[in-house]
Design goal:
globular, about 150 residues, single chain, about 30% helix, mainly alpha
Length: about 150
């Protein structure tokens, strides 16, 4: 007889998260632009899974979050992402609020760090935008643009 253990949805995953039954974590559907967060992400914000996943990818690409530890974006705002946003804000000489808004100074600084406004001008970050889009595509989010 085979031992079969039913998954317990009330048991935390290896990262301490309780998974929702509402389907909200279904691999971040409908993502089209890694910079297109629709609402603020931060300690007291709504933190939709799609927006949080985008911010996780951005923080990974600016060197403040290692997505390999969680095998990609999680869609959950927690201590790791809070610390990553604050570290980036500190490095960019911004107020350390642990919050990023769609058009705020932190998003502007992220775009600048990833060389969005002038692709190729910064040789260290050239190609990061395409890499971010590819990561979203791998996780079921978007189809990367082809040249």
């Amino acid at each position: 007889m085979e031992n079969h253990i039913e998954p317990n949805k009330n048991r935390p995953d290896p990262f301490g998260r309780l998974m929702s039954d509402d389907g909200s974590q279904d691999k971040f559907r409908g993502m089209s632009d890694v910079f297109n967060i629709t609402s603020p992400v931060g300690p007291n914000d709504e933190n939709t899974p799609d927006d949080v996943a985008r911010v996780e990818i951005l923080m990974d690409h600016v060197g403040e979050l290692d997505l390999k530890q969680t095998e990609g974006p999680t869609g959950f705002y927690g201590e790791r992402l809070r610390q990553a946003i604050m570290a980036f804000q500190k490095r960019a000489s911004l107020p350390t609020t642990a919050r990023i808004t769609p058009t705020g100074t932190t998003m502007v600084a992220v775009k600048r760090a990833m060389d969005v406004e002038h692709p190729g001008a910064n040789t260290q970050t050239g190609g990061m935008v395409q890499e971010a889009a590819s990561l979203l595509a791998e996780t079921g989010g978007i189809t990367p643009a082809r040249d």
